Amino acid sequence: MLLSDKADAVGHIPSGLFIVAVQDQTTGIADGYLASWVQQVSFNPMIIAFAIKSGRPAYDLIKSGKKFAINVIGDHDKSYLKHFWKGYDPAQNPFNELPTEIGQNGGVILSQAKSAIECEMMDVTKPGDHEVIFARVLASYGMAPDAKPLVHVRKSGSDY
Questions:
Q1: Phi, psi (5° rounding) for residue 128?
Q2: Residue 155 belongs to a domain
Q3: Does 4 map to a domain?
């Protein structure tokens, strides 16, 4: 079977949209990226897994042990989504122009998100062109309880 044929159905797997956000409080280095491959993988302890491509500043910060937040994008406010979708200068703090708070564990919480999950990395594996990080949930925050999580369906499983 051709890769393009396999990719059609794989692209139909729905996922949410998230902003993974991390900041080194000592140096001020910060990064955030748009993610769609995030999933809960354990109840006890509560663990989530998400994919990240190596080379991002967020990747290095998370792997160094910095606490981070996975911000769940809701259908109530997508105004900040374009900022992460189109990209930004890596030398700039991507959160400078967005309302944020620092969570009790140091994760960057986007005030416009539906909710946020603070985490710390537990383990990592590289099954393909992205690494999968397994992270322990430390805390969660609800900012827009009535909003629905935004759902994303790709045109193909071979591209974002």
A1: -160, -135
A2: no
A3: no
